[in-house]
Request: fold
Amino acid sequence: MLPRPSADFADFLAAYRPGESDHRGRIPSPRFRRYPVDELLERPIVSLDVKANLAATLDDFGSPGETALSIADHLDEAGKRFRVVAESLAQGQSRSSLALS
Reply:
């Protein structure tokens, strides 16, 4: 899939106005606007149930350093798993290129 051209995001950027800390300057559009919760809940297939492993209180989340290390550990594990996939794909490509020659 090719990356989207910047022009595809023009409407969103005009409505969202990134870099502004105040939401009052945002310009709603038919596609990019605030949706009242009641309006969302009236739709036939809507769920606002957010499933996450949330702590009981904000103090239970740990320090930012602990959080960063946990994220790094998860990324390391994901990287190891992705490397296994990439290596197996590379081996499959070399085998198929040998079969073609």
